[in-house]
Specification:
The chain crosses the membrane at residues 45-62, 69-89, 101-125. The chain is an all-alpha fold. It has five helices and no strands. The chain is elongated. It starts with a helix and ends with a helix.
């Protein structure tokens, strides 16, 4: 087990629970339905990739470069993909003029997710 990966996954898991609860209870009256769906999509993908990180920790004993790459892809994918969705969902209450910058960040985070899964595939394929 890799302590760094488990600590990262634990942090993202706790934050996902808090953000999910905040979205369901705190934001419900502040943002519209479509924005709440965007928020929830960010929480969902954060959870999916938190579980992926936990799974990566079981491969970490092999000292495989592909696992490290997958770790960074999943970690920064969560930050960019889910983080940008949280910002986009709350733009009506934050009044920040960053949507032209944040819009392209979301697909970059999604691409990192895909690359992370591809790295995991090759790490498993390479494993004896």
């Amino acid at each position: 087990m890799n302590k760094r990966i488990i600590l990262t996954a634990s942090f993202f898991g706790a934050v996902a629970v808090l953000l999910g609860a905040f979205g369901a209870h705190g934001l419900k009256a502040l943002i519209d339905g479509p924005s709440l769906e965007i928020w929830q999509k960010g929480v969902d993908y954060q959870f999916y990739h938190t579980f992926a990180l936990l799974y990566l920790s079981t491969f970490a004993r092999y000292r495989n470069k592909l696992i490290n790459i997958a770790y960074f892809c999943f970690t920064f994918g969560i930050i960019l993909f889910s983080g940008s969705l949280y910002l986009l969902a709350t733009r009506s209450i934050t009044h920040l003029g960053f949507t032209e910058f944040i819009g392209p960040v979301t697909p970059i985070g999604g691409l990192l997710f895909v690359l992370g899964w591809i790295m995991l595939f090759f790490a498993a394929f390479k494993d004896k």
